[in-house]
Write a structure and sequence with these properties.
Blueprint: H1 15-52, H2 57-76, H3 79-91, H4 99-109, E1 118-123, E2 137-143, E3 152-153, E4 171-175, H5 184-197, E5 205-211, H6 213-216, H7 223-233, E6 235-241, E7 248-255
Parallel strand pairs: 1-2, 1-4, 2-3, 4-5
Antiparallel strand pairs: 5-7, 6-7
């Protein structure tokens, strides 16, 4: 009597890649959603600016109709809640979007972990627990439209300025927030406000994260120009991390009391063409 062959279950050659393929698709959807929001918000900002300078009823009527279309398109995408959900997915650790780990590693490498907890403000926090494991960081997460009870709902532009060092912060994180501000002058204003919210000390730091194309593929902003703007406000670049062709750039800036008053005016107060190209964007930061 011949031996009975034990049947083995053949594993599908595609089953192992199913999760990866789903993750890839989800990533593309996430990225396209965020990009669509940014495009619509830029259009909204431009139309709003035109409306402010409209001189005739017909111009105002046409502008309002265009604005209504943009607002409807934003609503069809799911509104700001959908943008934040997409941003949360993009920030998840499995996508390498957890910028908090980069910041923590930098701080540890600089010997910033001390007996006294560092007071931190996290602008645009999508999750309340980004720094929960770091007990030496006393983090205050805020967001314009909070998605969690542990995140303070607050407009950073309206946050009261500190009247004492006790109300100031040792560290402020501004990760993928500045690019969401719809006007170059308001971006500059936000950076100025961040400087004012930091404790006046050379140990105070700003962690700035931007989509890399904002810096390396903009007609109006280059890394040298960004450094000039930051120095004019009162920041010194101490660390950076980005790579050619990458999606995101990370910069760590040290608070500096000495400002170059000459740089704070003139060319830095208006958009100046730095380079040109058909596929370049118009992202800019100017000082108000």
């Amino acid at each position: 009597m011949g031996g009975t062959r034990k049947k083995t279950r053949k594993e599908s050659i595609v089953s192992g890649s199913s999760t990866a393929r789903t993750s890839s698709v989800s990533h593309k959807v996430t990225r396209s959603t965020i990009t669509a929001f940014h495009v619509l918000l830029r259009k909204k900002a431009n139309i709003t600016k035109k409306l402010q300078h409209a001189t005739t009823d017909s111009e105002r009527s046409l502008g309002q109709k265009e604005l209504d279309v943009i607002n409807n398109n934003i609503s069809e995408l799911g509104g700001l809640d959908a943008y934040q959900r997409a941003s949360q997915l993009g920030q998840s650790k499995d996508r390498g979007g957890d910028s908090s780990r980069i910041l923590v590693n930098w701080l540890l490498g600089m010997g910033m972990k001390k007996d006294r907890p560092l007071k931190m403000l996290e602008i645009g926090a999508l999750r309340p627990d980004n720094y929960a494991s770091e007990r030496w960081l006393k983090n205050t997460p805020i967001d314009l439209h909070s998605q969690h009870p542990s995140i303070l709902e607050q407009d950073f532009f309206l946050r009261p300025l500190p009247i004492s060092e006790e109300e100031s912060f040792d560290l402020i994180s501004c990760s993928l927030v500045l690019n969401f501000v719809d006007d170059p002058a308001r971006r500059g204003k936000m950076l100025q406000l961040i400087h004012k919210h930091l404790r006046p000390s050379s140990e105070s730091l700003l962690f700035l994260v931007l989509p890399l194309p904002c810096v390396n593929n903009s007609r109006y902003l280059t890394l040298p120009v960004l450094v000039e703007i930051m120095e004019a406000i009162g920041f010194i670049l101490v660390k950076e991390r980005w790579k050619t062709g990458g999606k995101v750039g990370y910069w760590l800036w040290r608070w500096n009391n000495k400002r170059d008053s000459g740089k704070e005016g003139g060319l830095l107060q208006r958009k100046v063409l730095q380079r040109s190209g058909a596929k370049m964007n118009n992202f800019a930061i100017v000082l108000p």
